[in-house]
Each structure stands twice: as C-alpha cells, then as structure tokens.
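Contributing new complexes? Match this layout with iron/sulfur cluster.
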Amino acid sequence: MTVYFINNTYKYETEAVLKLFCPLERFTFVYDESPEKSSDIIIMEVTDKLRAYANIGGTDCEITEPLREETDKEREFRLCRMLFTALTKITGITPEWGCLTGVRPIKVVNGLISKGCDMESVCTELQEKYHANRRKSELAYLTAVTQRPALETLEPESYSLYISIPFCPSRCSYCSFVSHSIQSKSAARLIPQYVESLCREISELGEIMRDKKMFCKTVYIGGGTPTAFSAQDLKKIMETISKSIDISKICEYNVEAGRPDTITEEKLRVIKGCGATRISINPQTMNDKVLEAAGRRHTAAQVVECFELARRLDFGNINMDTIAGLPEDDLASFKHTIDRLISLDPESITVHTLTVKRSAALSGEADKMRPKFFHSEELSDMVNFAFDRLTKTGYSPYYLYRQKNTVGNLENVGYSKAGYEGLYNIYIMEEAQNILACGAGGSTKLIDKATGKIQRFFNYKYPYEYISRYEDMTKYKGEIEKFAERF
Ligand code: SF4
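Output block (do not edit by hand):
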C-alpha cells in the first residue's frame, strides 16, 4: 500500500494508525508527489485544509477539515484521527483502544490523574479524544490507580537491574524474541562463554555502583528462559549478583522460570537460596493441544507439578503468564485456562495477547490467521473474560502495555492480588525508573527526572556478538558512572 504525504511528514503516527487496521501490510511512503490513481492508497494532505483519503480494495473515504491555529503535534494527531475515522468507515473495524496507538497508554492516564481527573473525566477524555471504548477506558483507569502507590514511593536514586538470558529449550512457534534454542549445538556451545561475559558485566557494573548513592530496588532475571541454563550456571550468575550489588534494599527479586519443561527442584532451590522473591511459571495455556500447536514441549499437567513444587519449596509469590489468541485455541479453552490458573491461586496472572511479528515462525501463516484473529470478536471476548473473571476473584490490573502487530490490537495486562504487584513491570512500562541491563539484548535506560529525558544504551542483541565484542560494547559504562554521581 502506498502512503502519500503532501506538505507534511507525519509518517510515524500515520503508520501506527494504519497498522491498527492492516497489521502485516507493507507500506511505501512517498513525499510531495502527485498520488497515482489506484486502489490501496492513503493520502495525508496539509494544504489550505487537512485531508485524509483512504482507498482500500476500491472502497474509499475522504475526510477534510479546515486548518486552524495549533501546534504541529496537534495537527499531526488531528489528521491521524481523521484517517482513523476513514479507515473505520471503510473496514467496519472499530479498534477498542481507538487511535491510542502507543505502547504505554497508561502514561496518558497517569498524566490525567496527576492533573486531578477522576474516573469519569479520564474515561470521557479517552473516549472523546482517542475513540477508545468505555471498557478499555475503565481498564486503563483501574490499572493506573492500582500502580500509583508504587510510582509515588519510587526513589529517583533507585534502579532496577535486568539480567538477560536469551536462551530457551526450544523455540515456540509464536516467538518473536531473540532467543536461541539450546537444542542447536552452536547455541549450546555459547553458554559457558555467555555466562562468563554476563558475570563479568554484572561485576563491573557492581563496581561502578558500589560507591555511588544509587541503590538497586528490583532485580529481574528474564529471557528467553533463564531456567534453560543448568542449576550450576544459574547459581554462578545469581551469586555474582549477590557479590556485586548491595541487595539489602531490594524489594523484589524476580526470576522468570518460564517454561515448565526446564524447571527442576535443584534449580528452584538455587533460585530460592540465592534470594529470589518472585518467580514466573508460564503455562501460556492449559490446553495440551494448544501447547503442542505452539511448539511448547510441556503439558498442562507439568505446569501444575511445577507450581506445586514451587509452593512446597516455599515460593510465596508466583506469577503465571497466559496468551490469548494462540493457534488452535478458542474461547471455551481460554476460559478453562483462566479458571484453572485461578484454582491454583498464584499471586499474579499476566494475560498477553498474541503478537505476530515477521520473525515468528507463525508469521508465515499470518494471512491465513488474519480472518480468524485480527479484530475477531472471539479474541476480544477472551481478553474481556479474563478481565471480568480475574477482577471478580481478587486480582486487579496493575500494569498494561501494547505491542505492534498484536492480534486484534489488544493489550497485555498484569493482574495481581493486592500487595503482589510486580514492581519491575510497573517501573519499566511506565519508564519511571533507571534500568541497568546486563546481557545480550539488554537496554539500559537512565532517566533525568528534571527534564524527563531518557538516555538509552544498548548491548549487542545476539549472544555471539555480546561475547566477542564485549569491550567495544561496554564503553558506555562511563556514562552510567557520570549519571550515578548526581546522587
Ligand atoms: S519460551 Fe518465550 S522466549 Fe522462549 S521460545 Fe518460547 S516464547 Fe520465545
């Protein structure tokens, strides 16, 4: 599809709106050229008027509005909202979040609450300005209210430490992360060197932070699947963390145990012994047929066994992840998953909506999936069921984010019992806290509270680059030191 911009360069927001309706379409962007007459074109025009024109498969719609005094940002938003309305009319699709396209819609709500808005005025703003529906507006408000205490008590000199372990026992069909299957011999061979480099980075970072007044508030060991590593490797990494970082003030220490086919009693004992306070055991679904279709090599019964094992070992804060929209899943099966997880009584349950990126094995089948999943009512019913059931059984939404190419343009929501909100999840999603990241694909974020500006530093994405170009990559650590000197 070709997108013409006349007298403007509003590509970013335009593309975000287009993706709400055509998530896997490829777009060509053309600036200040006369549009060719054809179907499948979009025209975004700023001349003596604002004009949004869309033609999809021969059905078209044009919306014009007069120019008025406004900032460029406001004009961009207005034109994109016009495009949103045109696409809604052509396709008959009404995205539930309206044209609230960003990854972090709760930031908008937090901003409104800070200005003194109550639930009614937040919902009115989200519905009128962004065309979000009432249900999503209430969800956003409730999430913001639940996470507020965690944000209000956050110390500016605190940071969270993220440890990346981008290895998994095998690759799930829907996976879009950079995660290496340890079934591959070349990936497995990298593990010892990866652990060495990772421990080195943690120690070096610890050395930088030790003399500074910044303190570590949460630790998150994520992946991939950290428990794809052996108990010995996990121990080495976690002992390095304990030696390097002052963990006395840590409020939350997460380990994403992840897939039940990697969890053993020995590994859980190491995780517990090294100080973890919260783990995730992620079924994604409690339907064996769906697990098999997703390429996850475990059963629902194994999920229950792992959960019970973790409880016996005294883990008092367990999160469980699910995904709505997996191939072969349907509403009845998804409802069963949510109800089965509630019956296990974990402290938190995270409900993701399937994201299909081009890098996922599934994306080759994206066109086949499109009629069933994109914008399907069944998917929306799954997500809404999860909200209704979980909020009636003692869980509240506490963090929420969206991703590009998410099926149905829906959201990912963490629900928890009171007092078990995952702090790291809140901090990272609201970009409220400094994050120091170690390991391949880690991205460090330093937040200047005075200006709101975020400095970002990226580690190499792939483990082999992370190992072989370690020196080169970690040159930015001096910037962390300079930043920490402010406190
Ligand atoms: S467990 Fe997660 S990170 Fe690993 S392959 Fe599956 S989806 Fe990807």
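Reviewers usually confirm one structural detail per submission. For this one: Residues 2-91 form one domain.
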